[in-house]
Amino acid sequence: xxxxxxxxxxxxxxxxxxxxxxxxxxxxxxxxxxxxxxxxxxxxxxxxxxxxxxxxxxxxxxxxxxxxxxxxxxxxxxxxxxxxxxxxxxxxxxxxxxxxxxxxxxxxxxxxxxxxxxxxxxxxxxxxxxxxxxxxxxxxxxxxxxxxxxxxxxxxxxxxxxxxxxxxxxxxxxxxxxxxxxxxxxxxxxxxxxxxxxxxxxxxxxxxxxxxxxxxxxxxxxxxxxxxxxxxxxxxxxxxxxxxxxxxxxxxxxxxxxxxxxxxxxxxxxxxxxxxxxxxxxxxxxxxxxxxxx
DNA sequence: ATCCAGGAGTCCG
DNA sequence: CGGACTCATGGA
Length: 294
Known about the structure:
By secondary structure, this protein is an alpha+beta fold. Among the domains are: 2-83, DNA-3-methyladenine glycosylase AlkA, N-terminal domain (TATA-Binding Protein, 2-Layer Sandwich), CATH 3.30.310; 119-236, Hypothetical protein, domain 2 (Endonuclease III, domain 1, Orthogonal Bundle), CATH 1.10.340.30. The protein has 15 helices and seven strands. The chain has a five-stranded antiparallel beta sheet with strand order 1-5-4-3-2, with helices on one face. It has a two-stranded antiparallel ribbon with strand order 6-7. Strand 6 and strand 7 (157-161) form a beta hairpin.
């Protein structure tokens, strides 16, 4: 077992609420307050059981402890996944001056940005979610994972790995159309896979840029990656606090509900609202999304 | 049936 | 850059 000291402002239960938002989720399971997650580390399948006890995050390995190096990789994954290196003090400070943020922050305090550490998963999941309702997006993802992903069954539970870009790079669009992907989405997903196989695109390269604009421009040059998708991926995978998917429909609905508006806010209204969110747009959006889950 | 959903590409001025 | 149009498929 590995213990991880959580940062200030960490609420495991709030994170679990987010992780449990879809009943079509198959990339992790929540059982009795633990998160079960299958990873591949050094070509080895490793099952993680993540819990919270005695003010510490505990990562157990139900299938047996892997080598120490692999355990450390697993711990790094958890830090990445739960955004544990982020200090939220600045966010909570600006939230105090904003009526809408103040409300969601006081409700969900300690919620971290639950990320998608795998760049390929972040990009392709975002593409799947473009312009369709979330329920159907989850259906598409489930089919995609079950068709092209790897799985392992342990003690009667089946755990899945997201498909790899090298696997998807070798299929053709029709294989995705069978799963009800539109022709466009099939092209986008395969295009991204091939870009990654060709080493034109990697998380390491993007992180090395370390400048919001540069990353955004690079991502949106890829076919199928518009501004929304680029910002979504920068939020969920690249830890860019200033990432701001301002056209996001979920954001619009959350704001509408929080402010009791008759209609969704306009882009101009959102920009005015978000003027005080500078540097913390991603967390602002994430907390507002959280407010949509009951 | 009708509206719309965690948009993107293209064309056009 | 910003608007208008088109695509595409299922949920509620």
